[in-house]
Amino acid sequence: MKIKLTTVYVDDQDKALRFYTEILGLAKKTDFSQGSYRWLTVASPEEPDGTELQLALNDNPAAKAYQQALFQQGQPAIMFFTDDVRGDYERIKAHGAEFTMPPTEVTGSTIAMLNDTCGNLIQISQLARY
C-alpha cells in the first residue's frame, strides 16, 4: 500500500492555494469544480507524482471543529520534512509567513512552526543526523 493523498481543512481554498504554492513552494496538482464543490490538491515539486495534499474547504461542522481544536491546542495539522529547516525557515519567512516557533532543537530533530493563514499550524522538521 501507498499513501497517495491526505487532507488539510482550510477556511478559503483560493487563499490556501496561494499560501501553499507561493509561500511554501508546493505545486498545484489538481483543481476542478463541480457545482459548489472544488477538488484542490498540491504536491511537492520534488515528488510531483508523490503524495498529494488536498486543500479541502472546512464547510463541514465536524471538520471545522477539528481544525479549530488543533489550532487552539497549538498542534500542527500538517508536518513537512526537509533537509534544511533553517534555510526553509529563512526562505518562507522572507515570503511573509508568520512563524509561531523559529527553528528549535528537540529530541531527534529541529522543528519550526508557522501559521498557514487558513486556520492551521504547520510544522517543518529536520531529522537529526547522528
TrEMBL record:
One Pfam family linked to the record: Glyoxalase
- Location of the VOC domain: 2-127
InterPro entries named among the record's database cross-references: Glyas_Bleomycin-R_OHBP_Dase, Glyas_Fos-R_dOase_dom, VOC_core
Instruction: Tell me the domain of life.
Output: Bacteria
Family annotation (PANTHER family): GLYOXALASE/BLEOMYCIN RESISTANCE PROTEIN/DIOXYGENASE, GLYOXALASE_BLEOMYCIN RESISTANCE PROTEIN_DIOXYGENASE
Q: This protein is called what?
A: VOC domain-containing protein
